[in-house]
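Problem 12. The chain below contains 141 residues. Write out its predicted structure in token notation.
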Amino acid sequence: MMPTSMFEISTDRTRLDIDYIHRYLSQECYWAIGRSRAVVEKSLANSLCFGVYDGAQQIGFARVVTDYATFAWLCDVFIDAAYRGHGLGKQLVEAIIAHPELQGLRNFILATRDAHELYRRYGGFDALAAPERWMARPRRE
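Solution.
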């Protein structure tokens, strides 16, 4: 657990409020609108999860998909709208980057539509050095 003034960031899975995480992702986050509870549960089970708390109440979340050796993908990052403006997003990114199990990775990536400066300034992220080397396989329905 990593205290952050009156708030706390924790990787303790037993504290995750899955109902809250699912509701927030599926209703508030542009990248996850409509995501099913089953998909959220499976994603949590297979990721290093970070909860942000005000006492016992969860107010933010992020997860990292990683092999803990060479690669990590930071995703599903959010701070509840009611708690924005307190620097919690910055503290969350810094806590993730400082996590001991995420040190020395060759590639640590993320995708964002509108928070480039947050990740650049507090996480040390930059645009892909060679985007022409990266490919993605889109979901085919």
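Discussion. The domain at 2-133 is CATH 3.40.630.30 (Aminopeptidase). Students who got a different answer should revisit the alignment rule from Section 12.3.
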